[in-house]
Amino acid sequence: MNAIGGRPSPAGGNNASGFLSRYAELRDSLPGDVCVRDVAAAQLEREGLPRREVEAWKYTNLRPLWDTSFAGGSAVQEADAGPVLDALLSTLGDENAASARLVFLNGLLSDGLSRLPGSVTIRRTVPQPLPAGLHPMLALNQMLSADGVAIEVPAGLDGGRLLVIGLGSAEHAPADWHARVSIALGAGASLSVLQIDQGTGCYLSNAAITVSVAEGASLRHARLQRDAASAMSFALVHAQIAERGSYDVFNLALGATLARFEVHARLVGAQAAVHVNGAQLLDGEQVADLTSVISHDAPNCNSRQTVKNVLQGRARGVFQGKIVVARPAQKTDGYQMNQALLLSEQAEIDAKPELEIYADDVKCSHGATVGALDEEQLFYLRSRGVPVPEARAMLVQAFLLDAIELVQDEPFRQVLDDAIATWWAGRAA
Amino acid sequence: MSQFLSISGLRATIDDQGSPKEILRGVDLEIPAGEVHAIMGPNGSGKSTLSYVLSGREDYEVTGGEVSFEGRDLLAMEPEERAAAGVFLAFQAPVELPGVNNANFLRTAVNAVRRARNEPELDAVQFLKAARAEAKRLSMDAEMLKRNVNVGFSGGEKKRNEVLQMALLQPRFAILDETDSGLDIDALRVVAEGVKALRSPSFSALVITHHQRLLDYLVPDRVHVMARGRILKSGGPELAHQLEAQGYAGFLAEAA
After folding, report:
1. Higher pLDDT, residue A208 or B186
2. By the 8 A CB rule, do A311 and A347 touch?
3. Quick count: other Cβ atoms within 10 Å of Cβ B150?
4. Which residues of B154-191 are buried (b: 16+ CB within 10 A; e: fewer)?
5. How far is C-alpha B235 from the chain's CA centre?
6. Which InterPro entries does the annotation name (chain A) (predicted)?
7. How far apart, in whole angstroms, are the C-alpha atoms of residue A260 and residue A254?
8. Closest-CA residue in chain A for B106?
9. Is B58 on the interface with A (CB under 8 A)?
10. Largest distance between two CA atoms of chain B
11. How confident is the model at residue B183 (pLDDT cuts 50, 70, 90)?
12. C-alpha to C-alpha distance for A33 and B183, rounded to whole angstroms
């Protein structure tokens, strides 16, 4: 009827209008170069947020983003967040709890709760100019981002271990924040980061992370996404890895109603390596998506991906993995494996591997498996006296093992192990 | 007075492409406490099905009969309850559990059973000590405890691992489903020793086998011949020798 009347229907309007009108209000008070924000706003004005017709968003529907009216991030008092942080730290083990940390409260860096590392440079940053044709979530981040940090490890230095903790709190109205983190490692430097996101209430956390790994440097990045049950959790990583450098990331998705962890990694120097691994444990109506685009631009690089999904209830897991091998990237070694364990009839996995190869001497493989728990294995355990919940937990843990053991930082891996055990305890109860 | 294990008129079917196929056709068997019984019979006679039905595997549907174990209705119990009550099945084809550490698996099983029996659980140190001692007694390399359950184990190692589980779980009634098949003479002796070590007035075993050799070591109290889903004949240890000499054909003809 609207079409006949010539009036635009709500569905035909700009689905980013809520965010855009907030930007119009805040434009002059946000920190940093307003031109950079305007570029992002102009793109969102033009294109809106992607709908499911857009191939990259076919399996993950962003509709809740425009169906919810977000009110920005309300300030959280450090006094209120302190006990939450302490409770979290107490579950991480002494070694982790004593590590340096950056703490974000609703997307804003908390000076009082953070504990800065000695050897690593931490700078407050605001959106930096990024190339035109932004990823839509990055455009949203760039337009509204209120705070961010740049973490820099000087050449030749071991930056040790660093926690990056995001605590969210949106008790009264849906809130949103768009934090920005940039991690740069100088030549031969190293750093191990554990990122933990959690919160309460309904919020959109839309982080943008840029990673730059110089020659021979090595970044380990583990992420525990334990966002609130009604949260929408997005994290987008753009990584560039130079010669002999390595970036190793693991994303454990447990929380949020809608989540996407997306990595765009570019191997720009010979013998560089990138590992994008993860596990998604979902229940109820949860949707979690791990999307990666790995570009091999230089010869003799290797990329590895092992992603596991454990799906209960009506949960849906999504894996999209694309490997692009440019013509100069001879002797590329690319591997991708996505596996799903469906624990209920209604659970669903959508997997889309893609290879795009322009070089002629490469080794690229990908695989996917989908299955239920093995009845014979279950019976074997039960026949030894192990009750069903415990037997299922053992088999699920075994299923996850070859992904989890790829997390090289042992104390951080322990945190992920514990989180998985807690997740299971919650199911069995 | 309630018997130790009493099977009467047991019938069971398995789903065969949508229609039930009857495998057990009225099995009657009494095993008193403290006795070792053997079941022999040609392939397809229902021996393994009997062992699975007794341990509670769900692929089989019990369509008739009763099984009582120490006065309890065994068929009404979940597989893990049967294990806690003291029933143990040594699998003919032990299942591989990739990603599950053998020591963890054994400790989880032992402690689950101890919990169900209201006994204190073993901590990691206590358990490892016990497991290493048993492994040694069974001439098993302690390295096997560190590997994934049955993954990459040879046939003999898998069977020894079953006997190790039996030794640690201390069942009151053990079913050994062709635990001797594919074993060399040394491994065979180990299996036999494993059963002998448990022999007591309150322990019984049902040994399913094709070979006389294991029975030479174990010396069963009774031997039963099973064919076409029923026990056709029972007797003393001499029956096994008779079978070894004459084969099953005579018995089958006699029963037909």
Report:
1. A208
2. yes
3. 22
4. eebbbbbbbbbbbbbbebbbbbbbbbbbebeeebbbbb
5. 20
6. Fe-S_cluster_assembly_SufBD, SUF_FeS_clus_asmbl_SufBD_core, SUF_FeS_clus_asmbl_SufBD_sf, SUF_FeS_clus_asmbl_SufD
7. 11
8. A384
9. yes
10. 57
11. confident
12. 77
Tens-digit pLDDT profile for residues B193-211? 889 999 999 999 999 998 8
Instruction: For residue B56, give both structure tokens.
Output: 């509670």
User: Does the pLDDT of residue A237 top 90, yes or no?
Assistant: yes
Per-residue pLDDT of A182-208, as tens digits, reads 999 999 999 999 999 999 999 999 999
Count A/B contacts: CB-CB distance under 8 Å.
75
Q: Distance between CA atoms of A159 and A119, rounded to whole angstroms?
A: 6
Closest to A194 measured CA to CA, from A203, A176, A178, A181: A181
Q: Which of A380, A387, A390 sits opposite B95 (nearest CB)?
A: A380
The average pLDDT across A60-70 equals: 94
Give me the residue label for tokens 């071991």.
A158
Under 8 Å between Cβ of B226 and B40? yes
pLDDT > 50? residue B1? no
Give the pLDDT band (50/70/90) at residue A75: confident
d(CA A415, CA A89): 11
How does pLDDT run across A385-428, given as a tens digit for each residue?
999 999 999 999 999 999 999 999 999 999 999 999 989 877 76
Which residues numbered 348-407 in A keep a CB inside 8 Å of some CB on B?
A: 375-377, 379-388, 390-391, 394-395, 397-402
Q: What secondary structure, in 3-state letters, does B233-246 show?
A: EEECCHHHHHHHHH
Domains and CATH numbers, chain B: 5-255 (3.40.50.300)
Interface predicted TM-score (ipTM): 0.96
Q: Chain B residue closest to A396 (CA)? A: B99
**Contact assignment for B95 to A377 by CB distance below 8 Å:** yes
Q: B52, B55, B78, B97: best mutation site toward chain A, by most A Cβ within 10 Å?
A: B97
